[in-house]
Structure formats: structure tokens, C-alpha cells
Design a protein that fits this description.
By secondary structure, this protein is α+β, with helices and mostly antiparallel strands. The protein contains eleven helices and eleven strands. The strands form three sheets. Strands 2, 4, 5, 6, 7, 8 and 11 form a seven-stranded antiparallel sheet that branches. A two-stranded parallel ribbon has the order 1-3. The chain has a two-stranded antiparallel ribbon with strand order 9-10.
């Protein structure tokens, strides 16, 4: 079963917060095209992901990246309550993307699900007592806003979820510092990602495919696409077009090359598409841009 971003009815409110108890927690094996984090408020349950299973208890936080199959099951005679937050990368706007703590959150969301240390199933981060208190305080705030639904409540909830992600990142940073090897895996993953970005910069003038860049990041195309959006704040296609248009602007100002030739030189195999993208970005036709320069 696959859940998609269509679960979010309002594009201006690109996330969903749910409080689940007892039977509401249990679900079938599934995946989703968005991020999901869950925090165990009380009790215990069983979590299955990537063919492994682990018992979750109060204070545990799990992160599930897009397209990763997982399942939650109830344990006999055990109660459980959790807060589940589903969100799209749009939730992480430019202001939060620059925070160092977000990088640590990304490691939680993308790397921990695929690491296995000391026979523990990851991604399972047990928050410190202080971390639990702060996270639960934010969750209480979110619940109150959901219950009251006063004017502006979506903005308040969005800000609260962003704070929650930053705190999660800090908790992971402390955990990584205490565990040799985890930081190395995170650094290696980021290194592969940056190599993929460098590949894009070196090949944007040619036909370049998402799957080729993803291969250099050692990720699936869907996984890489989501991570790219998170780190760069724009899609793969938007990023490539931005590089191409930037180079086209340079050539228009610094050379006498014809406009159609510049379109081909910068990777736009279709002149009409080039003209349309250029006008949309600059407000000018290529010829007008050259005369202005």
C-alpha cells in the first residue's frame, strides 16, 4: 500500500498531525511518498521496517523516509499512544533549511533507517529526559491549536513542527557524537550527495537524467529527488534549468553567439522551451536581455 501527498488536502498546509491511541496505531505494511515521524507518548508497540522489528516505548521517536515500507503493530495487553506527523519538503522553508540542526534531522530521516548498530533497529531515537519534556511541550501546543482552530492556527502548527524537527536534530547530534561510526556514515552519505551535485554542475549543458545523478549519490531516483528538494530547496529539474539559464545569461552578455546556438550550448534542445523559460525567469526575451546588458 502506498500513500501519496494527495493525503494533504490543503497545499498551503503541507503536513498532517494525528494523535493515535490503541487500535488506531496498528496498520498494514505500507509506504508513503512523504516524510513521517512518530513520537511515542506512552505505552509500547512493535515497529517493523526493512524486514526487522523492534519494540518502541515512551520517549522513542521514529523517522520513516519516503518509499520505505514499515508497519506498526500492537503488543498483547499493552496500550500505546503516539503522535504522527506527515509532511512534505515544502514544510522546510528556506529559513529552516539553513540551520545546522536541520542537517542532523536529515541524517535521522534519511540515514538512520538504513543503519544497523548493536542489533538495534534504526531509525529509533530514544530522546533524553530533557528532550522528551521539550518535545512533549511542543506536542501539547500542537494539540491545543488543533482543538481550538483559532485564526492563524496552521501557521502556529507549522512553526511548532519546525521547532520539533530542529530539536530532533539536536538530539541526534548528541547521539551521533556518543556513537563512533554513526557520524562517519552520515558524513559519507552527505559526501555522495555532494558528488551528485558536482556531477550536475559538470553535465548540465548536456542531456542529464535524474537517475544518473541519483546513481552517483547511491540512492534510488525517488529517494534522491526527495533529498535533493530538502537540501537545495528546489526540484532536480528546477535546479538544472537554473544552471542552464545562468550560463545562457553569461553567454548573452559575454559573447556574440546566436540565441539558438546558446540554447543548444546550455542544454536546451528545444529553442521554444528555452525562449519560454528565459522570459519566465527574467521577464525579457534573450535578445532584449542582451541589448539591456
Amino acid at each position: 500500500m502506498l500513500y501519496t501527498e494527495q493525503e494533504f488536502a490543503d497545499p498551503e498546509f503541507p503536513f498532517k498531525v494525528e494523535i493515535k491511541q490503541g487500535l488506531e496505531v496498528a496498520n498494514k505494511l505500507h509506504a508513503h511518498s512523504f516524510f513521517q515521524i512518530s513520537y511515542i507518548m506512552k505505552g509500547t508497540c512493535l515497529h517493523r521496517v526493512n524486514g526487522r522489528e523492534a519494540v518502541l516505548a515512551k520517549g522513542d521517536l521514529i523517522s520513516i523516509p519516503p518509499m520505505s515500507q514499515h508497519q506498526l503493530e500492537l503488543l498483547p495487553d499493552k496500550d500505546v499512544e503516539l503522535v504522527q506527523i506527515d509532511f512534505m519538503p515544502a514544510l522546510l522553508d528556506g529559513s529552516i533549511q539553513s540551520y545546522g540542526d536541520l542537517t542532523h534531522f536529515v541524517h535521522v530521516a534519511f540515514i538512520r533507517p538504513f543503519l544497523d548498530m548493536n542489533d538495534r533497529l534504526l531509525p529509533q531515537l530514544t530522546l533524553t529526559y530533557e528532550g522528551q519534556q521539550r518535545v512533549e511541550s511542543i506536542i501539547t501546543e500542537i494539540r491545543m491549536e488543533l482543538d481550538r482552530r483559532e485564526a492563524g492556527y496552521p501557521l502556529v502548527i507549522k512553526a511548532a513542527v519546525q521547532r520539533l524537527l530542529v530539536l530532533t536534530g539536536r538530539e541526534y547530534a548528541s547521539y551521533a557524537d556518543a556513537k563512533q561510526g554513526t557520524g562517519g556514515a552520515a558524513a559519507a552519505s552527505r559526501k555522495f550527495f555532494e558528488e551528485a551535485v558536482a556531477y550536475i554542475h559538470s553535465r548540465f549543458r548536456e542531456e542529464i537524467k535524474l537517475q544518473d545523478a541519483a546513481a552517483r549519490a547511491t540512492m534510488s531516483p525517488a529517494y534522491f529527488s526527495t533529498m535533493f528538494k530538502l537540501f537545495k530547496g528546489k526540484s532536480f529539474v528546477e535546479y538544472v534549468n537554473e544552471l542552464r539559464l545562468g550560463e545562457a545569461m553569461r553567454l548573452l552578455k559575454e559573447t556574440d553567439m546566436g540565441v539558438d546556438g546558446i540554447a543548444l550550448e546550455t542544454g536546451f534542445n528545444n529553442s521554444t522551451h528555452f525562449y519560454r523559460m528565459f522570459k519566465k525567469t527574467t521577464g525579457l526575451t534573450p535578445a532584449a536581455y542582451r541589448r539591456k546588458g
